[in-house]
Amino acid sequence: MGGTARIISIELDERTVLWRNADVEQERRVAIFDLLEGNHFRPEGVADPGPYRLGLRIEEGRLAMDIASEAGEPLTTVTLALTPFRRTVREYFAICESYYKAIRNASPSTIETIDMARRGIHNEAAEMLQERLCGKVEVDFDTARRLFTLICVLHIRQ
C-alpha cells in the first residue's frame, strides 16, 4: 500500500517480553516484515500525515502505542485497555501451541483444521482491535491482524 498514512518502523519494548520460543520469534519476525511491507495506519488528531514510527509496549495492563514522525519526533501516545483481549489472547496462545505441535507430527488435514481455527481467532481479534482503535487510530484489517500478533508477543510472560 502506498501513501503516507503508514508505519515505516516498528519497535517492541523488549523489557515487556521475558521469554519467547523459536515459533513465537518467527511469528514476530513475519508480522513485522508483513506490517512494514503493507499497512494503513492513520492516528486521529495528528497533523503529521505520516509515515510513522511506532513503538509498542504494555504498561499497567494497557497497550501503549508511541507514535512518532518519520524523523522520530514524538507525535502522540495512544493507549488501549487490554482487558477485552485477555480471553482472545489466551485462546490464540492455546491454538498456536496446538498448531506448532501439529506441524511437527500431525496429518495434513489435522494441521489444516487447527490452522483454520487459528485464523478464525486471529480474524476475530483483528476486528476487535479495529473497533477498539476506532476514533484513535484508523487501521485496515491486515494491519490490525499483524498488530494483534505483536500484542500477543508482548503478552508472553513465561
Features:
4 helices; two-stranded antiparallel ribbon; alpha+beta
Quick synopsis:
The chain is α+β, with helices and mostly antiparallel strands and 158 residues long.
Q: Could you describe the 3D structure shown?
A:
The chain is an alpha+beta fold. It has one domain (7-155). It is built from four helices and six strands, in the order E-H-E-E-E-E-H-H-E-H. The chain has helices spanning 22-37, 86-105, 108-133, 141-155, and strands at 7-12, 41-43, 52-59, 62-69, 74-81, 137-139. Helix 1 (22-37) packs antiparallel against helix 4 (141-155), helix 2 packs antiparallel against helix 3 and helix 3 crosses helix 4 (141-155). It starts with 6 loop residues before the first strand and ends with a helix. The mean pLDDT is 87.
Indicate how many domains the architecture comprises. Answer: 1
Alpha plus pi helix count: 4
How far apart the termini lie comes to 36 Å
Question: What string, H for helix and E for strand, traces the elements in order?
Answer: EHEEEEHHEH
Number-wise, the strands total 6
Strand order of the largest sheet: 1-3-4-5
Uncertain spans, ≥5 residues at pLDDT below 50? none
